[in-house]
């Protein structure tokens, strides 16, 4: 029997495009269609690979926001894939499951899973069970028919027993949208675990580059391969540069523009969005200077990106922001002393912020340490501007 392939795609959110609008129209058009294009890439791969099933988990769509055209396109992709013999499984909470089916016109090839539910795929003596722990976690268990368990004596069918299956493999796929969501702890021995990001990240705050995955199972139910493939049409990059002690607007603009151009040249998506972070080496005065010249530096970089040669093989790019690095450590400033040995106020403030005892924020998307550090830098920059 041939291998079985199942595609997993997390958090399509086809009704939720990335939110940047301060860019030329050709880039904005990419944003408007990014989520749908990423999901289409998943179905295209599924058809090309002749996959057994596509598993969509996380948030697929919001029925209150999706347009009729978007719903029709998704339903058509499901119908086309299922017509080729595949199965589409979508995980959602019970309320969302009913709304999802209605929004898509209840395509016959779609199976919906709420928390605690499972669906079974049978391939000869092999059974693959997909269980929804919640909309962000899918458990896979493969079973194989035990030897002799599928037959009975031809002359004594009345005593035929139920077939016996035994577990071959177990694995769990975790979806992770935000960078700060804790990664799953190791499971019991023998249970593999993988983490998938959204197929199309919406900002730098989201985890991962925008991929889906193929799980390949042998005819015996063994996991032969877990492989990622790209789906995103927009990527997000951070480019870092250093502002030296005496560096002014012209020098910083030239250096930064060259680094941005180099970064986007190797981008594999049709559109790359860049954020430039400037390392000021723990110097609050330099951070204040960077804040003042950032708009001009940003304008220079954007002018460069718009003026790049029109090459179909070159991805479009845009710079969304230039700023002093908010993650820059406060430690150098906290360790500074004045000539008399008494600590200056900036050093005291930096020291307090760096050593502040922090409770959890109650929101996995918020890092309390980052909030305190950024607030301290903003305060110090304002003091330097006085």
Query: How helical, in percent, are the residues?
Result: 25-40%
Q: What is the rounded distance between the termini?
A: 76 Å
Query: What is the CATH superfamily of the largest domain?
Result: Metallo-dependent phosphatases
What is the number of strand segments?
14
Oligomeric form = single chain
Kindly provide the name of the CATH class of the largest domain. Answer: Alpha Beta
CATH topology of the largest domain: Purple Acid Phosphatase, chain A, domain 2
Question: What integer is the average pLDDT?
Answer: 82
Counting H and I runs of at least 4 residues, what is the number of helices? Answer: 8
Please give the radius of gyration in angstroms.
Answer: 26 Å
Strand composition percent: 25-35%
Number of domains: 3
Based on the structure given, which CATH architecture of the largest domain is correct? 4-Layer Sandwich
Structural class per helix/strand content? alpha/beta
Helix-strand sequence: EHEHEHEEEEEEEEEHEHEHHH
Name the overall outline: elongated
Low-confidence parts lasting 5 or more residues at pLDDT below 50?
150-159
Strand adjacency order, main sheet: 4-3-2-1-10-11
Describe the largest sheet: 6 strands, mixed
């Amino acid at each position: 029997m041939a291998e079985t392939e199942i595609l997993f795609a997390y958090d399509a959110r086809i009704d939720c495009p990335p939110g940047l609008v301060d860019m030329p129209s050709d880039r904005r058009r990419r944003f408007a269609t990014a989520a749908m294009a990423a999901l289409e890439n998943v179905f295209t791969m599924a058809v090309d690979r002749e996959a057994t099933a596509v598993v969509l988990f996380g948030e697929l769509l919001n029925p209150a926001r999706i347009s009729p055209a978007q719903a029709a396109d998704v339903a058509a992709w499901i119908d086309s894939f299922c017509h080729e013999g595949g199965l589409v499984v979508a995980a959602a909470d019970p309320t969302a499951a009913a709304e999802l089916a209605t929004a898509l016109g209840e395509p016959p090839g779609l199976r919906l899973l709420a928390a605690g539910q499972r669906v079974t795929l049978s391939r000869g003596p092999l059974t693959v069970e997909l269980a929804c722990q919640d909309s962000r976690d899918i458990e896979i268990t493969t079973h194989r028919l035990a030897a002799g368990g599928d037959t009975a004596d031809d002359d004594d069918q009345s005593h035929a027993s139920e077939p016996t299956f035994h577990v071959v493999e177990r694995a769990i796929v975790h979806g992770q949208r935000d960078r700060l969501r804790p990664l799953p702890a190791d499971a019991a021995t023998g249970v593999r675990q993988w983490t998938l990001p959204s197929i199309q990240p919406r900002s730098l705050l989201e985890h991962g580059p925008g991929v889906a995955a193929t799980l390949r199972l042998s005819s015996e139910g063994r996991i032969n391969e877990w492989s990622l493939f790209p789906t995103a049409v927009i990527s997000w990059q951070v480019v870092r540069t250093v502002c030296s002690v005496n560096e002014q607007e012209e020098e910083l603009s030239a250096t930064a523009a060259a680094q941005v151009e180099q970064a986007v040249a190797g981008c594999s998506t049709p559109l790359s969005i860049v954020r430039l972070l400037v390392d000021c080496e723990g110097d609050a005065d330099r951070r204040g200077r960077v804040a003042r010249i950032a708009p001009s530096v940003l304008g220079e970089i954007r002018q460069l990106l718009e003026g790049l040669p029109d090459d179909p093989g070159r991805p479009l790019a845009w710079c969304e922001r230039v700023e002093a690095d908010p993650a820059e450590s406060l430690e150098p400033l906290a360790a500074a002393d004045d000539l008399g040995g008494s600590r200056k106020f900036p050093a005291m403030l930096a020291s307090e912020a760096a050593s502040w005892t922090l409770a959890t924020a109650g929101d996995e998307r918020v890092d309390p340490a980052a909030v305190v550090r950024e607030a301290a830098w903003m305060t110090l920059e304002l003091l330097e501007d006085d």
